[in-house]
Amino acid sequence: MNREGRGATTPITTGTPAPTTFTGNHALELEEGLLFEIGRTEVTGVDIEDAGDFTSRLGGHERKLSLDLPGLAEPEAMRHYVRLSRQNYGIDSGLFPLGSCTMKHNPRLNEKMARLPGFADVHPLQPASTVQGALGVIKELSRWLLSLTGMQAVAFTPKAGAHGELCGMMAIKAAHIANGQKRDIVLVPESAHGTNPATAALIGYQVKSIPARADGTVDVESVKAALSPQVAALMLTNPNTCGLFERDVVEIADAVHAAGAYFYADGANFNAILGKVKVGELGVDAMHINLHKTFSTPHGGGGPGAGPVVLSAALAPFAPVPAVVTDGESLRLVEEEGEAGADQALGRMSAFHGQMGMFVRALSWMLSHGADGMQQASEDAVLSANYIRACLKDVMSVPYGERPAMHEALFDDAWLEGTGLSTLDIAKALIDEGYHPMTVYFPLVVHGAMLIEPTESESKASLDLFIGALRDLAFAAKAGEKERFLGAPHYAPRRRLDETRAARAPVLRWTRPPLAEAAE
Ligand SMILES: *Cc1c(COP(=O)(O)O)cnc(C)c1O
Fold it and tell me: DSSP string spanning 131-171?
């Protein structure tokens, strides 16, 4: 493994340099090779009997070489992953200010519910009669989602927000085809998340960008000017990625509908308006909901996402299969397109019914909060973001500062002018201070953007510590302490990486170094 990137062990401000350790370990932070490097093929946790003589039915495709899996004793394997996990930052280790990602606490009650054997042990191919409880959870979750959004139908199978966008946009495309319409343009505001234009392009639409106004919201007049019989849909995030509520959303929706197009809403920022706004009343035709953002199910390294899509009456008939329907006293799945109830279904988004474990967690969060608790959660999320903005606006610069923010606080890099430092340097220095960086350089409409989303799950004490760290960094930046920033992170297991090279020439596969091979 490349160890050249090791962090400096010398604190920057105080005297005696720390000695280098013999092991490469730094107290709790342990240095270890990759599994393949520390494993020995002759060691294994499982004994599988030799297959003996057999006649292969694989037509010569059977594997002839050894599997070459790393062999480790159970404690070695455990330690390896525990050590790795300690080098990672997670919502359980500290405040996770990543904007647009809604990194909120994952309550342990949700985990307990998801681990109930009746949910954890069901198999997707079990007969519906034996999984009525699991189908009941899907039905109940859909009741909550429809009531929270004021929409008509919900498609459960998309596995993430971006997958939900694909589902919603495919429903829009299916609706246009069913209506005999040939439309090939999708309008996307320039502040949109990259997945929006990517989704539209993936299913063959041409993407037309809509500029933002000076106040950070979408320019209604530009939307109207861009609408034509060629436009299939507008994709809009509300509140938008600058953390601002699009106040003209109804006027925009009306214009979109008058032009025969559909209104896709990116629901990733639903946490800001949960229980406050029913998007169906804003004229939305399709919106994905990131259960892993708004409804506290783990994401990132913590687990798979789930991106159910709510649909308006106009798009509901095109929802993908499978769908849970009530059949007398029991629940059943409509599995095939063309079946009664799914005669116009757009097809299938994934093999089975969606992320069951995430459905249980999301419903558990909803039920433990109740309708009033969810409203309170979004109010607190908005309050936390505005508190952060108010406490930092004298040292960092706030674009679009005239209006209160929604659930995230956006800063630009104007305050760094003359310091020789960039947004990236601030983010890296934040790592040294024990925080995951905020979202940087997004949204693109703001120069050197820093987007902070504290969510409702941080206490005021925890917000104050985070604000304190950022204030100290801001003062240090302005005082010309450049080394603190340019060399950061000083204390992370790896120093600053060449991110461009990592993206352009990623090394995704480990190959045995030639020397090790020769020694065997
Ligand atoms: C997170 C996010 C998405 C994509 O959701 P995934 O679940 O990550 O695929 C789309 N739009 C916005 C605004 C987001 O924040």
Answer: -HHHHHHHHHHHHHHHHHHT-SEEE----SHHHHHHHHHHH
Q: Which residue's CA lies nearest to atom 15 of ligand 1?
A: 100
- Domain at 109-365: CATH code: 3.40.640.10
Nearest-atom index, ligand 1, CA of 299:
7
Ligand 1 atom 7: the closest Cα is on which residue?
161
297 Cβ inside 6 Å of ligand 1: no
Give residue 193 CA to ligand 1 midpoint distance, Å: 7
Atom 8 in ligand 1: residue holding the nearest Cα: 161
From 3.40.120.10, 3.30.70.270, 3.90.1150.10, 2.40.420.20, which CATH number describes the 372-504 domain?
A: 3.90.1150.10
Residuewise pLDDT in 10s, the chain (520 residues): 333 333 444 445 556 788 899 998 988 888 888 888 888 877 776 777 888 888 888 998 988 887 778 888 889 999 999 999 888 899 999 999 999 999 999 999 999 999 999 999 999 999 999 999 999 999 999 999 999 999 999 999 999 999 999 999 999 999 999 999 999 999 999 999 999 999 999 999 999 999 999 999 999 999 999 999 999 999 999 999 999 999 999 999 999 999 999 999 999 999 999 999 999 999 999 999 999 999 999 987 767 899 999 999 999 999 999 999 999 999 999 999 888 888 999 999 999 989 999 999 999 999 999 999 999 999 999 999 999 999 999 999 999 999 999 999 999 999 999 999 999 999 999 999 999 999 999 999 999 999 999 999 999 999 999 999 999 999 999 999 999 999 999 999 889 988 899 999 998 888 877 765 544 4
What is the Å distance from ligand 1's center to 165 Cα?
Answer: 9
Q: Are 151 and 280 in contact (CB under 8 A)?
A: yes
| Residue recorded with tokens 């994934």 | 350
Beta strands in 328-377 (DSSP E): 330-334
217 CA distance to ligand 1 middle (Å): 19
